[in-house]
Design goal:
The complex is a heterodimer. By secondary structure, chain A is an all-alpha fold. Helix content of chain A is 65%, strand content 0%. The chains are: A mainly alpha, B mainly alpha.
């Protein structure tokens, strides 16, 4: 047994896991009958189909040739996703200015050619622009600074 | 016919207010901008701007978003011709002959023909929308739940037939999209479904959050991987005017491209992406000198560029008349309409005629603006390509975060973007297309509602779907589509077409 399409194998396994996750959440939602579908009907059928597709795609990977696994670039992915998480966590207590500064600071690690002085200028300009557009012009209710 | 003109006149009245003209211009400008910049597509851009549209009136919001979509079709060709890099997937074909023309010092005529062809196609397609929209909407008013369910089924199956890449994987993405659409409270009982106890998704996963993550963030990640620098063709663009011979050579390809694009745009799947391929293949096939193609044949620019713009335009027809988005960009428009409290469907035209006709009129205005934005300002756009990505991506990232936060003033919502961004990156890395997922996510709740209603009407008898002629007809179409995908010869041909894309 040889894996011919590693991408499909991983993708198929991910679909199976997603299907299990969905089933665990559906729990005891009423399934109902075809004529009177309960809230669980559609999700159960779809979660089952997701699992089935996972099995098909993973199974296919043993038969059909496909591309090798693409390298995941964690050096780029982690700072970007981390920057978004940081913004989400910081916006409420710390305000837009600090949350954006955090976003830029963390995201900068994703790029290999970051010039820190340039980043400082660009960040400052973008924060000014954002405050001007979203808070002053559009009047969105954003906290600008930390609230204690 | 008279009606069409009086309705269009009303539309122009609504679209030509200073504010709406301004929004149309902003949309066209932003569309050109992201069309020129590789790695920022219309789906991501509309997703990012969606929250802002909440503060506009419905017509203005839709005018601006539509402008972004067809504007991107113009902008994409500029990069394709000058840099040999398609700014949009819909302008991949333009690189073949467009860039060759530029290399032979004929960048000007290539750009001009691309813009003029797009403009002509845009005008014709706008008129087609105005002409066929009302007919189709009237037809759709007879639709009951079974018909809607069957129609959406056709739409989803069509999306897999016309999707690039593996059919099996596209089907998987559609099922996952439908599954994600189930998250939230049940439409009848209000019971929470698959919400993981997170209050922010108790009412369902927010469309914008999902779209920004899957498209916006995932695209940033993909672009950061590619370190290849962009080399802008150094040669000066001298003389935009095409010669008389150029125009004569391009006239018929433009006409044919417009026709192909208009038809493919209405069909489910991404017409604006598929149409240029079809047009290019046709032009090459009927040309007396096919050997010129790939070496700077102007027909290879004129046809596809007209086709993608026509397709972009007519893909509004299913959305405006049936309320069913044929592709992911139109799914975004459904999101925009929902934000404004408008339920897309045939009733929009009667209940909200200024919205319907105003939007159609704005398409023509937008197309006229685009010729002006693109031709004389081409130098500006080229210079823009020199802005390094390390400056661009923090700005895009910030807009993503602020936009999503502003929907519900919720930090958790922003964190979900990171989750979906990670998911989008995973999909990208394993050969899954996110577009069918988004389409299914929008259609999922509608499909469930209509299916449950159908069974209620029929008291649980599934034969309701085949005894009603309209829904039976639609189901036959769905079956034919499935048969087409499974047909070996079509499969081979399909693989060939998408192979050229890579």
């Amino acid at each position: 047994m040889r894996v011919r399409s590693p991408q499909d194998l991983v993708g198929g396994i991910a679909l199976i896991l997603l299907s299990l996750l969905a089933f665990s959440q559906i729990g005891d939602l009423k399934f109902g009958t075809a004529s009177r579908m309960g809230p669980g009907y559609f999700p159960t059928v779809l979660a089952g189909l997701t699992g089935l597709m996972g099995v098909i795609i993973a199974g296919r990977s043993l038969v059909l040739d496909g591309p090798a696994l693409d390298q995941l670039h964690w050096r780029q992915a982690l700072p970007i996703l981390g920057a978004i998480l940081a913004f989400g966590l910081a916006i409420r207590p710390l305000g837009l200015v600090i949350a954006s500064a955090l976003l830029f600071g963390i995201a900068a690690f994703a790029s290999s050619d970051t010039k820190w002085r340039e980043l400082l200028v660009v960040s400052a300009a973008l924060i000014l622009f954002a405050v001007g557009l979203f808070v002053l012009a559009l009047g969105l209710p954003f906290p600008l600074w930390p609230r204690f | 016919m008279d009606n069409v003109f009086s309705n269009l006149a009303m539309g122009f009245g609504a679209a030509a207010t200073p504010i709406n003209l301004g929004l149309c211009f902003i949309g066209a400008l932003v569309g050109t901008l992201i069309g020129v910049l590789p790695g920022l597509g219309p789906i991501a851009t509309i997703a990012i701007l969606l929250p802002i549209t909440f503060y506009l009136d419905p017509l203005g919001a839709l005018i601006m978003l539509a402008g972004i979509y067809y504007g991107a079709q113009y902008g994409g060709s500029t990069t394709a011709i000058l840099v040999n890099m398609p700014g949009e997937t819909s302008s991949v074909v333009t690189t073949l002959d467009g860039h060759q023309m530029a290399r032979r010092g004929r960048a000007g005529p290539a750009l001009a023909i691309a813009a003029l062809g797009s403009f002509f196609a845009g005008c014709v397609a706008t008129f087609i929308v105005a002409l066929f929209g009302p007919v189709l909407a009237k037809f759709a008013q007879n639709f009951g739940p079974p018909e809607y369910f069957a129609l959406m089924l056709v739409g989803l199956i069509g999306a897999t037939v016309l999707a690039s890449g593996s059919v099996v994987k596209a089907v998987a993405m559609i099922i996952v999209g439908l599954l994600l659409g189930c998250v939230g409270s049940d439409i009848e009982t209000g019971e929470p479904r698959m919400t993981f106890g997170i209050p922010q998704i108790a009412e369902g996963i927010n469309f914008t959050t999902l779209a920004v993550g899957l498209f916006g963030v995932a695209e940033i990640l993909r672009n950061l991987e590619k370190t290849a620098d962009r080399t802008v063709l150094g040669a000066k663009i001298t003389g935009l005017m095409p010669t008389w011979a150029d125009i004569k050579q391009s006239a018929m390809p433009i006409l044919r491209g417009t026709g192909i694009g208009s038809v493919l745009g209405i069909l489910p799947g991404n017409g604006a992406v598929l149409a240029p391929y079809a047009s290019y293949t046709l032009e090459k096939k009927i040309s007396k000198t096919p050997s010129r193609f790939g070496k700077g044949a102007i027909e290879g620019v004129a046809g596809p560029e007209s086709a993608n713009n026509a397709g972009a335009q007519t893909s509004f027809i299913p959305l405006l008349t049936l309320g069913i988005p044929p592709n992911a960009v139109m799914a975004m428009m459904v999101g925009a309409m929902t934000i404004q409290g408008i339920v897309p469907g045939p009733q929009v035209m009667n209940e909200n005629p200024t919205l319907f006709w105003g939007m159609i009129a704005s398409m023509w205005i937008g197309n006229a603006m685009l010729v002006i934005i693109n031709l004389p300002l081409v130098g500006v756009w080229v210079r823009l390509l020199k802005v390094p990505y390390r400056i661009l991506f923090p700005a895009i990232l910030m807009f993503c975060c602020i936009g999503v936060y502003s929907i519900n003033s919720s930090g958790v919502e922003v964190m979900l973007v990171a989750l979906f961004g990670g998911v989008g990156y995973f999909l990208l890395k394993h050969g899954f297309e996110p577009a069918p997922l988004l389409l299914a996510f929008v259609l999922g709740p509608l499909m469930e509602e209509n299916l449950r209603r159908s069974f209620l009407i029929a008291r649980g008898d599934p034969s309701i779907f085949v005894t009603r002629p309209l829904s039976a007809g639609l189901l036959v179409i769905a079956l034919i589509l499935i048969a087409i995908v499974l047909l070996p010869s079509v499969r081979k041909r399909r693989e060939e077409v998408f192979q050229e894309e890579d």
